[in-house]
């Protein structure tokens, strides 16, 4: 059974940083691309960033450009997202998702497996 488990969410002060982890089980991530998505209350889920199986990162959300770093540690079957200089607009549930395709896409429906998400709260 494939599982993705996100962790690292919580309360982050404006201007601070967050680092989320996505641990996979049931699959070996090294041949999968992994996307990070987020959904704020009342808004659609949006693609934030993605890392290909080869480690190439594509940032999709304009609001995170220059602030986000995505990396992967295949030995730990884990992908990370770090977001710096957070603002209240970054508050959302963050999800990781994966598909057995080495290339990245922002198209949500192409991702097979999803985690349950981790809540990030940024007070205004």
Written overview of the protein:
The chain is an all-beta fold. Strand 7 (68-73) and strand 8 form a beta hairpin. It is built from no helices and eleven strands. Strands 2, 4, 5, 6, 9, 10 and 11 form a seven-stranded mixed β-sheet that branches. Strands 1-3-8-7 form a four-stranded antiparallel β-sheet, with no helix packed on it.
Write the layout of secondary structure elements.
Layout: E1 3-7, E2 10-11, E3 18-25, E4 33-39, E5 46-51, E6 57-59, E7 68-73, E8 78-83, E9 92-99, E10 113-114, E11 118-121
Parallel strand pairs: 2-11
Antiparallel strand pairs: 1-3, 3-8, 4-5, 4-9, 5-6, 7-8, 9-10, 9-11
Write a concise keyword list for the protein shown above:
mainly beta, seven-stranded mixed β-sheet, 124 residues, single chain, four-stranded antiparallel β-sheet
Query: What kind of sheet is the major sheet?
Result: 7 strands, mixed
Using the CA coordinates, give the radius of gyration. Answer: 13 Å
**Which structural class do you get from the secondary structure elements?**
mainly beta
* Arithmetic mean pLDDT: 96
Discrete helix count: 0
Distance between the termini: 39 Å
Q: Helices and strands, in N-to-C order?
A: EEEEEEEEEEE
Measured as a percent range, the helix fraction is: under 10%
Which parts are unreliable, with pLDDT below 50 for 5 consecutive residues or more? Answer: none
- Share of residues in strands: over 45%
Please tell me what the overall shape is. globular
Number of DSSP-assigned strands: 11
């Amino acid at each position: 059974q494939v599982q993705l488990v996100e962790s690292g969410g919580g309360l982050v002060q404006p201007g601070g940083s967050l680092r989320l982890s996505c641990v996979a089980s049931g699959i070996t991530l090294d041949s999968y691309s992994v996307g990070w998505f987020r959904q704020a209350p009342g808004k659609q889920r949006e693609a934030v960033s993605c890392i290909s199986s080869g480690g190439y990162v594509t940032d999709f959300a304009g609001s995170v450009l220059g602030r986000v770093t995505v990396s992967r540690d295949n030995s730990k079957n884990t992908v990370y997202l770090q977001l710096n200089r957070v603002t209240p607009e970054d508050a959302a549930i963050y999800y990781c998702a994966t598909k057995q395709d080495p290339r990245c896409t922002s198209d949500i429906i192409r991702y097979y497996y999803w985690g349950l998400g981790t809540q990030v709260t940024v007070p205004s």
